[in-house]
Structure formats: structure tokens, C-alpha cells
Write a structure and sequence with these properties.
The chain is built from twelve helices and five strands. It is α+β, with helices and mostly antiparallel strands. This is Helix-turn-helix domain-containing protein.
């Protein structure tokens, strides 16, 4: 066995141990009455019994016991989602559960898609470089004056600014974005990777359907199913007033809104 394999085994063992300890800890705090069970006689330990968790989650007691013992078993996302509900996990705890299980949440908690947490807009306004926040559909939820200037008045001229609609349906984007054809193809692959966890999300699907109908280039690129990371790097713009502008793009996922990202474009030095 190679050293690399040993490292992977060690990582897997630690992850399963953490998952087991986490399940035991959260099970102990759930009051039987809170899930519709009678408190019943005397309990040796606080919280729910393993048998009760298994019954409520619709899995076998043996299977759940193995999870709490840290055994190497495969657990489906649907089962993890039911366990998260039974164990009354908070948003952060649910995210932690799926991370430990190395699984994708089939029912990620929904955010208010039209509003940002208090203070985020002010943070964006304080950034000197062009900056903006995109949600899962790449709607622009916040932008600063530098971004407005860079995009020559967009998104303020759009009542519902969306970066994908701008790139594929606004003629101005073809002139502003240098090497537009290449960038547009990459954007499609970036968006596909970005929304993998939201494939069944109605607003995401509606946006994809709209662009498939409205943009032949998007339709062609989307059917290729190419996937790349939104890695940033050099971005060149042909600004109608300022000429050629060169920036380095950096994208940050927001901890308080995991479905959103902050994009910053400092000038290339």
C-alpha cells in the first residue's frame, strides 16, 4: 500500500470518527417530546435512543448503529437529509453533516434570494476596486460605483440585473468583454459547475430554459456539459470611454450566504 493510500485511509477514519461523535452528540440533545415521542419511563441517557432515530429516519437500527460506530459504510444523501431533520440540525450543523459524509445535500436550506444580510451591501460599497455580489442564478444583488463604471452603466439600467443575461443577451457585452466568444463559452462551463448543487432549483432551471431559448450560443455551450472552476485570472475590457482596461478577477464564497459569491476586479499592476 502506498503512502498516499495510507493518508487517504487516515483521512477517512478521522472523518468517520468525527461523524460518529457528532451524531451521538446531537442525538443526546433531542427531547423525545419534540419529535412526537412519549418521554417514557427512565432513560439511561438523555435524548433519543438509537432505535428511535433509526425508526424516525426510516433506516435499520443496525445501519444507524454502524454510523455511530464510525464504520465504513455508504449512506445516501436522502438518508442524511432525513437524519438532519430528525436530529433537528441547525443550518451550520446540517452543512457539517454533509461535509463529514462527503455528500451533497439534496435539499439545501433556502435563503431569501432577494435580500442580503445586513451590512453586506455597505461592505461592497467600501471596496475600491470594481466589486459585486452574485446569487446562485448570478443575479447581481449588490455592486459598487467602480463596477457600475466598468460595465458602462449596467446593471443600473436593468431592472433585474443578471450577469448571464447581460453576457448572452445584451449587445453591449460583446463590445465590452474582450475575446467575448471565448469568455462566453467559459462562463457557461463555470455556471454549470457553480449550480451543480442547485440543479433542481426552480429559478436556476427557469434561467437556463430562458437562455436556451434566447441564445443559440448558450444553448450550444450548455449541451456540451463542459465544467470548469470559476478560477478568476486576467479579465480584459474594451471600455467605450476608458479604452482597454485590464483586471485580475478574484471570487470569494460568502460564509453567511453560501449560495452567493463576492467578485472583485482589482486593476492589473
Amino acid at each position: 500500500m502506498t503512502t498516499h493510500d495510507n493518508k487517504e485511509d487516515g483521512h477517512g477514519l478521522a472523518r468517520r470518527r468525527d461523524l460518529a461523535e457528532f451524531l451521538r452528540a446531537v442525538r443526546a440533545r433531542v427531547a423525545p417530546a419534540s419529535v412526537g415521542l412519549p418521554a417514557g419511563g427512565r432513560r439511561r441517557t438523555p435524548g433519543l435512543r438509537r432505535e428511535e432515530v433509526a425508526q424516525l429516519a426510516g433506516i435499520s437500527v443496525t445501519w444507524y448503529t454502524w454510523m455511530e460506530q464510525g464504520r465504513e459504510i455508504s449512506v445516501s444523501p436522502a438518508v442524511l437529509a432525513r437524519l438532519a431533520s430528525v436530529l433537528q440540525l441547525t443550518r451550520a450543523e446540517r452543512h457539517y453533516l454533509f461535509d463529514l459524509a462527503e455528500s451533497t445535500d439534496p435539499e439545501p436550506p433556502k435563503d431569501d434570494e432577494t435580500r442580503l444580510p445586513t451590512g453586506l451591501d455597505a461592505c461592497v460599497q467600501s471596496i475600491v476596486a470594481p466589486a459585486y455580489i452574485l446569487d446562485r442564478c448570478w443575479n447581481v444583488l449588490a455592486r459598487n460605483p467602480a463596477m457600475l463604471d466598468l460595465f458602462d452603466g449596467w446593471p443600473d439600467r436593468d431592472p433585474q440585473p443578471n450577469l448571464l443575461r447581460y453576457i448572452f443577451l445584451d449587445e453591449a457585452a460583446r463590445h465590452l468583454v474582450s475575446d467575448w466568444d471565448t469568455r462566453a463559452q467559459r462562463v457557461i462551463a463555470e455556471f454549470r459547475a457553480d449550480v451543480a448543487a442547485y440543479a433542481d432549483d426552480a429559478p436556476v432551471q427557469a434561467l437556463v430554459d430562458e437562455l436556451m431559448d434566447s441564445s443559440p450560443l448558450f444553448a450550444q455551450g450548455w449541451t456540451r456539459r463542459a465544467v470548469v472552476e470559476r478560477e478568476g485570472g486576467l479579465r480584459v475590457f474594451n471600455h467605450p470611454q476608458h479604452g482597454e482596461l485590464r483586471f485580475q478577477q478574484f471570487t470569494f464564497r460568502l460564509a453567511i450566504r453560501p449560495d452567493c459569491k463576492l467578485v472583485m476586479l482589482p486593476r492589473e499592476s
